[in-house]
Structure formats: structure tokens, C-alpha cells
């Protein structure tokens, strides 16, 4: 079975993330979307909330599974017999950072990283930018799945 992991913080998941997840699902028998836990960062959404949103927006993809992980991604790959990591690249600056990570991951575990160029429609998206725009009343329709937009706006109302 060809398996890959599509890691990220997904706080929240954007249409750019979903595009990479969907494309990965077309290439692999199973794709694990791993919400990576960074205990030094406080997200807008809890890990469980992010996982729930991901389950909702990937429900149409039968070969996608949602999980979370704290620690080295390559350890997750080793423990789960995953041979590939898929990543979306928005710009050259992403490549500079991600190439170093990919080379280190390969050195540590033999896990390969596949880079996907982001759909130009979503090349400017980041979770941070989405949160900032939504917090200041900007319209994020079409930038995140509708379910995620509703949850995002609800959370912003709760926090204000």
C-alpha cells in the first residue's frame, strides 16, 4: 500500500491545504493528514477542533485519515510505515525552508518528501493570514471551506 502523510498545523485548514490533500489522495492509497502539535504555540483552535474540521472537509475522500502527532514527523512515519511526506509549496521562500527539512527527514529515516506546486488560486493563502483577515471583518469566503469559515467566525465572536 502506498501511504503518505500530509502534515501541518491546520489552524485552520484552508482551501490551499485541501487542494494539496485532495491531490495527494489521488496519488496514494492512503493519506494521513497529521495535525502537528507545537506545545510552544497557542492556536485559535484546539487540536481536537482542527481534527474535527479536517474530518468534515475531507469526508468525501475515503482514503484520507486524520491524526495528530507531537515530535519528529519522521518518527510518526516510521511508526506508521509511511514512506512519503507531501507538502504544498506556495513560493520560492517555502522551497528554501522545506528543502532543508526534506533532506533532514531523508537522512534521519529514508522518508521521501514530494513537493506540489500550489494551485495559483491559493498561492497567497496561509492560516495566519486567514485568521487576521477574518478577525478584522474581512470576507474569507472561498478561501476556506464553508464549514471552517463558520467555525472561524464563531470562534472570533467568542473571543471578542
Automatic annotation (TrEMBL):
Keywords: ATP-binding, Coenzyme A biosynthesis, Cytoplasm, Magnesium, Nucleotide-binding, Nucleotidyltransferase, Transferase. It is an enzyme of class 2 (transferase). The keyword Magnesium applies. It catalyses: (R)-4'-phosphopantetheine + ATP + H(+) = 3'-dephospho-CoA + diphosphate. Its EC number is 2.7.7.3. It holds the Pfam family CTP_transf_like. Residues 5-132 form the Cytidyltransferase-like domain. The record marks 17 as: Transition state stabilizer. It comes from the Bacteria. The keyword Cell inner membrane does not apply. Substrate binds at residues 9, 41, 73, 87. GO terms for molecular function: pantetheine-phosphate adenylyltransferase activity. Pathway: Cofactor biosynthesis; coenzyme A biosynthesis; CoA from (R)-pantothenate: step 4/5. Its cofactor is Mg(2+). ATP binds at residues 9-10, 17, 88-90, 98, 122-128. It is found in: Cytoplasm. Homohexamer. Reversibly transfers an adenylyl group from ATP to 4'-phosphopantetheine, yielding dephospho-CoA (dPCoA) and pyrophosphate. Belongs to the bacterial CoaD family. This is Phosphopantetheine adenylyltransferase. The gene is coaD.
Amino acid at each position: 500500500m502506498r501511504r503518505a502523510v500530509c502534515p501541518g498545523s491546520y489552524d485552520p485548514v484552508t482551501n490551499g491545504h485541501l487542494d494539496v490533500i485532495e491531490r495527494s489522495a489521488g496519488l496514494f492509497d492512503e493519506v494521513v493528514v497529521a495535525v502537528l502539535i507545537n506545545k510552544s504555540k497557542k492556536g485559535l483552535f484546539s487540536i481536537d477542533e482542527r481534527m474535527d474540521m479536517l474530518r468534515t472537509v475531507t469526508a468525501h475522500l475515503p482514503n484520507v485519515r486524520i491524526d495528530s502527532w507531537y515530535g519528529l514527523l519522521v518518527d510518526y512515519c516510521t511508526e506508521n510505515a509511511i514512506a512519503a511526506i507531501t507538502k504544498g509549496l506556495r513560493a520560492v521562500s517555502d522551497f528554501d525552508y522545506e528543502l532543508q527539512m526534506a533532506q533532514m527527514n531523508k537522512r534521519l529515516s529514508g522518508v521521501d518528501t514530494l513537493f506540489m506546486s500550489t494551485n495559483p488560486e491559493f498561492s497567497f493563502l496561509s492560516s495566519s493570514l486567514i485568521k487576521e483577515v477574518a478577525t478584522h471583518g474581512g470576507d474569507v469566503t472561498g478561501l476556506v471551506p464553508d464549514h471552517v469559515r463558520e467555525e472561524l467566525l464563531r470562534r472570533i465572536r467568542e473571543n471578542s
